[in-house]
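Residues pack. One example:


***
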Amino acid sequence: MNIDESTFELSDKLIDRANIIELRTIPFYKLENMELKKLKQKQGEDSWRKFQGDLLNYSSHGIKLDKRQLEFLWDLHEAINQALPNVGVSWRNVKLIEKFLNKLPSNYYEKIGKALDWQVSERILTKLRGTDTMLSNLISYDEKNEKVSGKIVDILDTYADLSAFESSRELLLKKVRELVVNGYAR
């Protein structure tokens, strides 16, 4: 789904069930180094027909969110829910985050923190929508230090042992800029 200024808001129910991925533009000068092939050419047409649906539910790591990760998600939920009633981290979010972590390729297994960050930014922080008044306790711009501040940033800092939360911090900065310019973040 493409999102632009003409797109209606995504419902929290939809966000719970989807990863919201914001694509980034590759620098133009890197295009000449890219080899363009169609995915079907790489895989072969027959392999698409033989693909087993059971593989979609395969979990290679047996990962369960640990107590610290669950505490992080709960603290995030409480902060968001206090400012925005009926919004926060749902059980569905928790289960889908766990499912996502279990489906990571083996070469990402050591990067669980980065994957957790992706899920927080894609599944949870995308729900932060509203006016400056609604979101000011959660996120705001600290002009003195020229950075994002607020309860959510404090939570990310508290749980820095889980991840650097780079994607989440980027998204929060984007939302704060929207608040400053528009008085509303979406």
In short: Residues 67-83 form the longest helix (17 residues).
